[in-house]
């Protein structure tokens, strides 16, 4: 697990250095040319520095060992970071929409050639960061940072197209139109991250796992008669957990430990469930419990 977090830290450090350097360059060019589009995009890139910093801090926190007050450790710090990053991305999308609508009603002169040139560099910068972050997308925190950088690259691509059109035709409203399309795509993907983060925090079943199939797989294990009180959730992104009761025959009681180990091995290899708590009950006990419930 620590090796994975080390890889994440390295990816985020790379993104932080490259993104911060480009943000400074873009601010300078925006001020020198008087381009509001470049200044606004540089401000957007500042939010990327913030989200990458949050992701980095969360990865460092998640590395801390479990203790008496945090018995499952700090893994969900990365989920909270994903929530915060997603909230920032929604705020950025709202800013883009408001700015685009205002510009449609009151167009501003834009230096299309300069915007296209600087935005092309932005594609290279943001694209490079996105590629590095994509190697760790299984982690929700890293995925939120990855999505942010992908849409920065798309924003830069849109700015290149808009800049070229403005430079060649003088039509300035296309800049706002591209901004609205990118904002819509950003909201769509950010909401997907938010839904997954909330699902984990509410201890919902991970979307890749089928409780019915897992229950059947446990029931099919030799000497397991039935399964009940099944709970499946994610402790953190990519680290799944399960608890359940299995019923066995009283004659197999001495083998109960071996039976549990077989079930746990099946859960690890077939369903990527790394943390399983399985309580063994005797068939007579479960039947008695059923009668009590009725």
TrEMBL record:
Domain Cation efflux protein cytoplasmic span(s) in chain numbering: 206-281
Localization per Swiss-Prot or TrEMBL: Membrane
GO MF annotations, alphabetized: zinc ion transmembrane transporter activity
InterPro entries found in the cross-reference section: Cation_efflux, Cation_efflux_CTD, Cation_efflux_CTD_sf, Cation_efflux_TM, Cation_efflux_TMD_sf, CDF/SLC30A
Domain named Cation efflux protein transmembrane: residues: 14-202
Keyword Transmembrane annotated: yes
Family named by the database record: Belongs to the cation diffusion facilitator (CDF) transporter (TC 2.A.4) family. SLC30A subfamily.
PANTHER family attached to this UniProt entry: CATION EFFLUX PROTEIN/ ZINC TRANSPORTER (PTHR11562), RE54080P-RELATED (PTHR11562:SF17)
Name of this protein: Putative Cation efflux system protein CzcD
UniProt source species: Candidatus Saccharimonas aalborgensis
